From TrEMBL:
One of its GO terms (biological process) is tRNA N2-guanine methylation. This is tRNA (guanine(26)-N(2))-dimethyltransferase. The keyword Nucleus does not apply. The keyword Metal-binding applies.
């Protein structure tokens, strides 16, 4: 018996992450990806903030109820009888029906924060205590995420871990026992189809976590129904080739949006996913409020709160837009789907005005590609981002990926929240065939022109700005004049020299790099700048993090830090580029007891696939 157990343990390795330990089978029977530690750490940080804010909202609701009761009792002493008032109160309670309908005196932008189930949980409770949140991990695999939630997040309730693979459920149950009494008391594992389970448990979970291998599209419809009002939906998508425009028709079939292949494609992927979740929620008179949206490594991850309100749902067309991307230059424009018209206290919802662009680009004369619709409203709640970041910094020792997630959150905290997508400074210069200005110089010119600008967590070279494209191109025209004159005369020029049109005519005869007349860069440079850019160093040209030299974009901690094989697939020597020679050889040695040989080593690859080091 002991010999059999020892042989069984030889097939497993113990993996520790945070406060959880799991037994991992070396035969790749159950999926596990070490790189997703960033994802799990960030989810724990958001979950801690959610529990804290949920408690604050509950206390605020109780305080509001107490004040309302006091006002009602004051009226009772001079007006209607207590019996009539209590009857009216009962009718109000029935009228609410947990749907968080927005009353006329309450702004539609203020969602109801507490779920129907949470309110029911406090009925009959004299102290008004809020029950611990119930969490569903819909695709649990080894159960590592569920175990970390249970062991590391204070105040969490039951964690339900699902999987439709028998080997994964058995591994999860084994890991629950392996992690002791806390895990046993809080985590339960079930063999079930996540879609069916969520559909049969409507509005039951305070938090639903979707982290599939690939696209989450087939789970979204049931997920938005399983979350309580005011609850949290966490969703990951790893099919980035589809979301970023590699297969636009596939993206449209899965998410209902057509992607564009611009430098901003990863942020567009985030916004396509949010628009898809909103679309599914709208079918059930629900809507979402994003609190944090992250593109990291090889996936996107969104954290949204789900509310029910037929009236607030009418605002959805105001949050969605189509994108027009010029095929010749980097100019892009957004076309909102809807608009509102106010008259007194009434609001009418109307289709958006359009088109926002002519048939040909006003900057370079080329045609437009059209994509979307995408989520064009803010993708972060800056108050939430600040709270999550502060929580992470206060507990840095409890996050294995602290450096990475704190860097990402710091960058997000400095993003312009109301500017969809972004520009690439290098792409602008590639269009014009000119030397790129430094980010500080370009930022200063935008700020001095009276506009806002920030970085983006998606791309270290990306810049978000509310400046229109004609202003951006004017700044680039002025930069080329300034840079070319500097090269010609070998000296700096003053403002009055820079404003002299003779310099601009001279640079047309001596461009930085010649292009054909019909090229977008030539057409853009043929126009005189309307704006005379000021490149003087602006105070806000560096963000606070940059000024303090805080690391914002960190390299991967090790090689082969990326997606892994789907569970159950046989590992062969062709997976060396994905997993690394050590992992592949270790697995094959364990199976065959001999050194494997690669059939076709890649040309120019100096790494011997048969070596164990």
């Amino acid at each position: 018996m002991h010999r059999k157990m020892a042989e069984d343990l030889q097939d497993y390795t113990i993996i520790k992450e945070g406060e959880a330990d799991i037994l991992m089978n070396v035969k790749n029977q159950v999926f596990f990806n070490k790189a997703q530690v960033n994802n799990r750490d960030l989810s724990i940080a958001v979950l801690r903030t959610f529990i804290s804010k949920r408690q604050e909202e509950h206390e605020a609701m109780l305080s509001k109820r107490i004040k309302s009761a006091e006002k009602a009792s004051e009226k009772d002493t001079s007006g209607p009888s207590v019996e009539e008032a209590s009857t009216g109160s009962a009718l109000d309670n029935q009228k609410s029906n947990g749907e968080c309908e927005v009353h006329e005196e309450i702004s539609q932008d203020e969602p109801c924060s507490i779920s129907e189930e949470s309110v029911k949980n406090t009925e009959g409770n004299h102290h008004g205590e809020l029950k611990p949140p119930k969490v569903l991990e819909a695709l649990s695999a080894s159960g590592l995420r569920a175990l970390r939630y249970a062991r590391e997040v204070e105040g969490i309730g039951k964690v339900v871990a699902l999987d439709n693979d028998k080997a994964s459920v058995e591994a999860c149950q084994k890991n629950i026992k392996f992690n002791g009494s806390v895990a046993i008391s809080k985590v339960e594992s079930h063999l079930a189809d996540a879609r069916v389970y969520m559909l049969t448990h409507p509005k039951e979970f305070d938090v639903v976590d979707l982290d599939p291998y690939g696209s989450p599209s087939v789970f979204l419809d049931s997920a938005v129904q399983s979350v309580v009002d005011g609850g949290m939906l966490m969703c990951t998508a790893t099919d980035m080739a589809v979301l970023c425009g590699g297969n636009g028709e596939v993206c449209y079939s899965k998410y209902g949006s057509y992607p564009l292949r611009g430098k901003y494609c990863h942020e567009m992927a985030l916004r396509i996913l949010l628009a898809s979740i909103e679309s599914h929620a709208n079918r059930y008179k629900r809507y979402i409020v994003p609190v944090l949206s992250v593109q990291m490594n090889f996936y996107v991850r969104v954290f949204v709160r789900v509310y029910t309100s037929a009236s607030a749902m009418k605002n959805t067309p105001l949050k969605l837009s189509y994108v027009y991307q010029c095929i010749g230059c980097d100019s892009y424009h957004l076309q909102p789907i809807g608009r509102t018209m106010s008259k007194g206290s009434s609001v009418r919802y109307l289709p958006g005005f359009g088109p926002v662009v002519p048939q040909e680009c006003s900057d370079c004369g080329k045609k437009y590609n059209m994509g979307g619709p995408i989520w064009s409203a803010p993708i972060h709640d800056q108050e939430w981002v600040t709270s999550v970041l502060e929580g992470v910094k206060s507990m840095k020792d409890r996050y294995p990926a602290y450096d990475r997630i704190s860097a990402v959150l710091t960058t997000i905290s400095e993003e312009l929240p109301d500017v969809p997508l972004f520009l690439s400074l290098h792409n602008l210069c590639a269009t014009l065939k000119c030397t790129s200005p430094s980010a500080v110089i370009f930022r200063s010119a935008v700020i001095n022109a009276g506009y806002r600008i920030s970085g983006t967590h998606v791309n270290p070279l990306g810049l978000k700005s509310d400046a229109p494209m004609d202003v951006i191109w004017d700044i680039m025209r002025c930069w080329i004049v300034l840079f070319s004159v500097y090269l010609i005369h070998g000296r700096h020029i003053s403002k009055w020299e820079f404003a002299d049109n003779t310099f601009f005519r001279k640079v047309k005869n001596h461009p930085v790099k010649a292009q054909a007349p019909d090229q977008p860069g030539s057409i853009i440079l043929a126009k005189e700048p309307v704006l005379q850019a000021n490149f003087a160093r602006a105070v806000a040209s560096l963000s606070k993090a940059q000024a303090k030299k805080v690391a914002r974009f960190l390299p991967n901690p090790e090689r082969h830090w990326g997606p892994k094989l789907r569970a159950g697939r046989q590992i062969t020597t062709k997976h060396i580029s994905l997993l690394g020679p050590e992992a592949v050889n270790g697995h094959l040695n364990h199976e065959n007891g001999e050194e494997p040989k690669a059939k076709r080593p890649k040309t120019g690859d100096t790494t011997d696939p048969t070596s164990s080091s």
